[in-house]
Amino acid sequence: MSVTDANSPLAASLASQRVRGMAIVGGVIFAAALFGILTRPVGFLASFWPANAILLGMMVRNPRYARPEAWAAAFLGYIAADLVTGGSWHITLWLTIANMAGSVTGYFCFQFVTDKDRRLRHAISVLYLFGICCVLALVSALVGGGAVAVLFDRDLTQGVVFWWVTELANNLIILPPILTFPGFRMVASNLSSASAMSRANVVHWLPCLALILSVMAGVLIGGAGTLAFPMPALLWCALSYSLFTTSVQTMLLCIWLLIAIPAGIVAIPTLPDLINSLDSIRLGIALTALGPLTVASINSARRDLIDRLTQLATYDMLTGALSRSAFFERGQDRLGELVQTRGNIAVMMLDLDHFKHINDRHGHAVGDAVLKEFCALVSTHLRARDLFGRLGGEEFAVLLPATDLIEATALAERIRVAVDEAVIAMASSPHLDFSVSVGVSACRAELDTTIDTMLVKADHALYEAKAGGRNQVRVGSS
């Protein structure tokens, strides 16, 4: 039976996934459109219309949804939301086509940027987002602007401008949190950590508190400066929090302004022409979001770079073991902790036998495979608190806190046996065997104990293991 058979399990699974995707997209768009319709002022289009940006965000973040049937489900979601709230067929179809035109255009534009830019992980990513939002808003406005002219008795130019500004604002506000969403588990973990009562967490919440106070000040004071009041606090948030958190804070602030200003909760001067006044307010709010998002994006890119540099400095790229410097630095920290309790500490020196011969005979690619397999085997026998580092070439070291000589020797023997039994698959021969020699040293941690001294003793024991025939464990003198 072919895997493409309509009755095959694979085909049934794919069909089920598509139906589920249609249901999710259609249901979410119906709910989002219904929210926008129910919250709009009487006689006007919605002050806040999240459906288009949510649709675009879902398609960009989950390409498996971007199938014709899912787009069709979204179309039906728009239609259903408008009809159940009393919309007329001809206006409903017109508005829905305009909404879909913008989202489809945005999805097409996002295909020309990298995945990191889609997630706003580069310094210039927010400008790419701004450009895409301008283009999709223009396409949507050209299709739907005439509806504004018909509904509110305005000329076509005013209708296009009104639609473009509204669509631009909604997408700039809603897309960033969707594009930067790290996953529910990560969000739950961060919230759990941030909710713990400690001085560090109190300081952590200060930028958020400053943002809330600045919003309250805007309500109390009013005036055109209300849009700028939260900016210092929002920039503080962008420098203090993750990109996703800053995106959410920016979104919530902008949504508040989009709803509160037309409702009169925040008093600011308006133009005699209400629609032109709303255009100016929405455009101002949308452009306000660019500043903190850009700062947060740059800060996120800087953190990523620091993390990569730290990873390169801390771990060996080939094997994943600690680098020489990181091993000694962390080992000294572990030793310092044990000195206070005079606990036991042990080290092992490990050297792969005849490794140069493996490289010379089989090539460096096989040698790299042996090193990776060896490190994977050793790591499976170590505890979380143990340190495993590559000191150079085929020479490795293990530091074992709270471990005496008998325990360390037994562990070394288990590692030796595991390595001796391991094989590397070869294209030119059935397999490649390899082995390791191990030197062990242990003592009670004292003030004059050093990692270097312990490794010298273990290295002497390793030399004895090599001289004695290799593939064995030897213990260093106390």
What attributes characterize this protein structure?
transmembrane, 478 residues, elongated, Alpha-Beta Plaits, two-stranded antiparallel ribbon, 18 helices, 7 strands, alpha+beta, 5-stranded mixed β-sheet
Task: Describe the fold and architecture.
This protein is α+β, with helices and mostly antiparallel strands. The chain is built from 18 helices and seven strands. Strands 2-3-1-6-7 form a five-stranded mixed sheet. Strands 4-5 form a two-stranded antiparallel ribbon. α4 packs antiparallel against α6. The model has no long low-confidence stretch (mean pLDDT 85). Residues 343-478 form the GGDEF domain. Its EC number is 2.7.7.65. This is diguanylate cyclase.
In percent terms, what proportion of residues is strand?
A: 5-15%
Low-confidence stretches: none
* Secondary-structure element order, N to C: HHHHHHHHHHHHHHEHHEEHEEEHE
The helix count comes to 18
How many discrete domains? 2
- Give the termini distance in whole angstroms: 69 Å
Mean pLDDT: 85
- List the strand order in the largest sheet: 2-3-1-6-7
How much is the radius of gyration in Å?
32 Å
Shape: elongated
What is the β-strand count? 7
Largest sheet data? 5 strands, mixed
What class, by secondary structure content?
alpha+beta
Helix content: 55-70%
